Automatic annotation (TrEMBL):
Cofactor(s) needed: a divalent metal cation
Entry keyword set: Metal-binding
Domain Calcineurin-like phosphoesterase residue range list: 6-135
Alphabetized NCBIfam families for the sequence: yfcE
Protein name: Phosphoesterase
Family annotation (InterPro entries): Calcineurin-like_PHP_lpxH, Metallo-depent_PP-like, Phosphodiesterase_MJ0936/Vps29
Pfam families on file: Metallophos_2 (PF12850)
Family matches, as Gene3D superfamilies: 3.60.21.10
UniProt superkingdom: Bacteria
E.C. no: 3.1.4.-
GO molecular function, a single term: hydrolase activity
């Protein structure tokens, strides 16, 4: 996992750090870190991180948040909560997710949950995603699996 961090231009973390030490280590190692806090994160992490991080990377307007609610209606809620966003990365379930939602004006919101490289929950493997953001476009999204 650290090799993937070292290779990335930007590392995105969608919360549930659980330990301040992990934030410190990742922040020190990543070229750029975009992150938010999750429901399992205490006061110290919440003081250092936003509930939703918003940045532009490669011309793509990115939002990173932990909670998006249940599967049913997720796209509709995300469109309402994140206007002007091209890509929403979220966590909470620790289950990989990759969908798109269309706005009335024809623009799209891509929703990604990379799963988790540390807490696989009900998944058979630990996971994370890589993708390319360039010239306002979201390139290939790859779901990676860590084998035990």
């Amino acid at each position: 996992m650290w090799a993937a961090v070292d290779a990335a231009d930007v590392v995105v973390h969608a919360g549930d750090w659980c330990e301040v030490d992990l934030l410190d280590r990742l922040d020190e190692r990543a070229s750029r870190l975009v992150a938010c806090w999750g429901n399992n994160d205490g006061a110290e992490l919440r003081a250092r991180l936003p509930e939703t991080a918003r940045v532009t990377v490669g011309g793509v307007r990115l939002a990173v948040t932990h909670e998006t609610g249940t599967r049913q209606g997720r796209e509709r809620r995300a469109l309402a909560a994140h206007p002007g966003t091209d890509l929403l990365v979220f966590g909470h379930s620790h289950i990989p997710w990759d969908t798109s939602a269309s706005r009335p004006d024809g623009t799209e919101l891509r929703l990604l949950n990379p799963g988790s490289p540390t807490d696989r929950r009900r998944m058979p493997t630990h996971t994370w995603m890589t993708l390319t953001l360039d010239d306002g476009r979201i390139g290939d999204v790859v779901l990676h699996h860590l084998r035990s």
